[in-house]
Structure formats: C-alpha cells, structure tokens
Amino acid sequence: MQHSPRAGREGDVLAVVSQSGPTVSFFDAVDDRHLGTVELPSEPHELCFDPAQRLLWCTTAYRSGYYHANGGRRTELTAVDPDARRIVEVIDLAPEHGPHGLALDAARGLLYVSVEGSADRPGGVVVIDTGTRRPVGRIDTGAPGPHWFAIDPAGRWGYATNKEAPFVSVVDLRRGTLTTKVEVPGSEGLAVSADGAHVFVAAPYAGSFSAGERRPATGIRVIDARTASVVDTLPTRNVVLPVHLTATGKLLVGEVRAEADPVSRLGRQAPGRLTVFSAETREELGGLDVGRFPLTITSSPDGRIAYVACVVSSTVHLVDLETMRELTRLDIARRGEPGAHGLAYLPGPA
C-alpha cells in the first residue's frame, strides 16, 4: 500500500523567501498552514538551514532587481531563529557585496557564501564560522559573478558556477585556493552527487531572452570531479536555472519557458517545467508544468516531495516525486516583482 507523502512530517516546516516581500514565511509541512512571517532587509534571495545552530541563513544580494539589472548591491547576511521567528543578527559582509549562494559544512561549522567581484578583486566565497557568525576567510573564484555554490559531502571541494565566465570554478576548501576551471559555457544552478564523484551543472547562462539570440544547447553538464572535465550532457527543452539532488538520487531541474519581450529583459514568461532525471542512470524520469520562472528547488529529507519556487508567479509547487503529481500550490505574498525565491526545509526540533 502506498504511504501518504505527508506521513511522518509532524513538526517539520517549509521556509519561503518573498524577494519583494521582503519576508521569509513559514508553513507547516503536513497541512501547509501559514505559521508566521519574519520581515527581512530588502531583496532577500537564498536560504540555508543550519540544524546544529537552529538558524536559518538568508542572503540579501541587491537593493532592487536582480543580477545585471539591479539598483545596487547589498552586503548583508541575515541569521533568523526559525522557531522563535525573529532575526537574531544581520551580519554586514562589506566590503564584500552581492552575496547570493549558500552552502553549509555542518560538521566543521562553516557556511560558504558566494559574493560578486569588484574593480579591485574577483568574485569569491566568504567563509563564515557558524558559531561566532563572523567571517573567517575568503576564497577567490577567478570570475566576476559567482552566483551558485555547492560543496562535496566530505567538505573538501567547492564548486562555483559563473554566469558569464566560461567555466565552473573548483576550489580547495581546506587550503582556501582556486585549483581548477572546468570549461562550461556560462552556468547557473548546480548539485553535487552524494559520493562527490559528479557535479551536475545547468548551462548555458540564462542571460537575456532577446529574439534571435543563439545559445549553446541547453541542459545539465555532468562534471567528473576526479578529472575536472565534462563527461556528459543531459538535454533539456529549455534554459535551466535551479538544480537539486534529492536523498533518493533524483536530479530535479527547473526549466524556464519564455518568449522575447521588448519591455522585460526576462522575457514574456510561460509556465515553467520541473524535469526529473536519475542521477545514476542519467535517464529522464518525467516532469510536469509548474509556475512561471522556477528559480529555486528543494526536497523533503526522504526525497518524496519536491518544492519548486517560481519567482514571477510567486508560487511554490509541491510535487509528489513518486506519482509525479502536484500536491498543492502555495501563493506567496509579495509587494511587487519578483516574488517567491529562496527555500529551506526545516526538520522539527529533536
């Protein structure tokens, strides 16, 4: 008999950022009740949950807008208590700016935050001690705009995707140095396999949606971590931004469907698509339509439910990955454009 996808989630919470809210909202993982909202500094982006500290980390990248179309870069990283639903501290990373991607090494108590470059230094990754909530290092990535960042399960290697730069930056986390550049034609989201052997990278860079623009074939580049080279490409129908790997080895990718629009640089948005691959066999397992412009994906710890945040429609779509059916849709409050962005699944306190 098939078990309910909601079984065993009592006490668990889903956290969702509204970029124009600017807020993080909390929802019961069993019945989707709205539990509360915390106001954040303007234009929050990504979320990362630290179970050891019971803190929710949130980056604030811009004063308004988005990458290459913003009203100035911000410098804040916000720590939120998700149980009390209050801000614990706002950490100013200046002179670093444009913080975006987050990756946690819980075993070593380190949080990695990607930051954009400036005239006097390339983009990089700021290293935060999660106990003191203070920066303890910086790793250059050799590109102006590292946007997404992921680490391998052993906490030895980090991977930064770079929108315009034609490579993925590989950094040695123990030595704090850039070691390799893997040739990729501009890149977006990424995920590292559970054994650290492969990195799955969305490429090319979404860029603009100008009419007649030619791009390399869209899809997921598979990087062999040992040789630091692309060994395969999983084809997609459209440009991909978010990539997520579940605990059960399903690779989730968010495809953006857009037509050229003379008014909006992002194009005229149609419903996006969640496409599912097997990370092991690299076969496509299925997919379904979601909201407009899927930008962030996460999943439940058991890998049963996918959560897809769509920033233009400001919706979060909950998908049963066994039946490939949508369970429900959350409408995320916003005060303008854009809307739903960062996601984090929070298991209940022990």
Describe the structure.
The protein has no helices and 30 strands. The protein has 350 residues and is mainly β. Helices cover 0% and strands 55% of the residues. The strands form 8 sheets. Strands 3-2-1-30 form a 4-stranded antiparallel sheet, with no helix packed on it. It has a 4-stranded antiparallel sheet with strand order 4-5-8-9, with no helix packed on it. It has a 4-stranded antiparallel sheet with strand order 10-11-12-13, with no helix packed on it. The chain has one domain: 7 Propeller (Methylamine Dehydrogenase, Chain H), CATH 2.130.10. The two termini are 29 Å apart. InterPro entries: Host-pathogen_enzymatic-act, N2O_reductase_N, WD40/YVTN_repeat-like_dom_sf. This is YncE family protein.
| Rg computed from alpha carbons, rounded to a whole number of angstroms | 18 Å
Q: How would a crystallographer describe the biggest sheet?
A: 4 strands, antiparallel
In terms of DSSP E residues, the strand content is over 45%
CATH architecture: 7 Propeller
The tally of structural domains comes to 1
**CATH level 3 topology:** Methylamine Dehydrogenase, Chain H
Which consecutive residue ranges, at least 5 long each, have pLDDT under 50? Answer: 208-212
Protein name: YncE family protein
InterPro entries: Host-pathogen_enzymatic-act, N2O_reductase_N, WD40/YVTN_repeat-like_dom_sf
